[in-house]
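REQUEST
  id: r-88c1
  op: predict_structure
  target: YutG/PgpA domain-containing protein
  payload:
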Amino acid sequence: MVSYEEQDKQYYEHILRNLKDRGVELKDIAEIVIFLEKDYVAGLNEEVSIYAINKVLHKREAQNAIMTGIELDVLAEKGLLSAPMQRIMQTDESTYGIDENMAITLASLYGSVSVTNYGYVDKLKHGILGKLNDKSTGKINVFLDDLVGAIAAAACGWLAHNEREVDKLLNK
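RESPONSE
  id: r-88c1
  status: 200
  body:
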């Protein structure tokens, strides 16, 4: 039987591969974190932002949401969903909302700071989020754009709730 720690590592590595395969690097998410937190965390840099992102990516509830969302996007892209789900995913139907609900749930793991940051960045489509939301590419990123925004927002929440650790990381 695989230990919880080994499973966590496998899920984390699977998520990193899936993000990369979908065109998302941790530095892209870090850029969003810095954009959101630059006025609140003096000296925030890419390294500390990625540290916070990795904290989020090792949380099991976050892992499950990310893996589920990416899997649905990939299946839809391959045309493997049944009707009407295939049409909903292909058109990114505006009233579907499950993608945002999953992202809000992920963000809420780190409190109200994360939830408000998620709503803000989802509306702006800052950085990589604009690229992921571009329908002209032929890619289906119904869940991914929201989940990437939620990962960034959750990392912001982690930063807010771990001020002492962040100070140590920034002042080492």
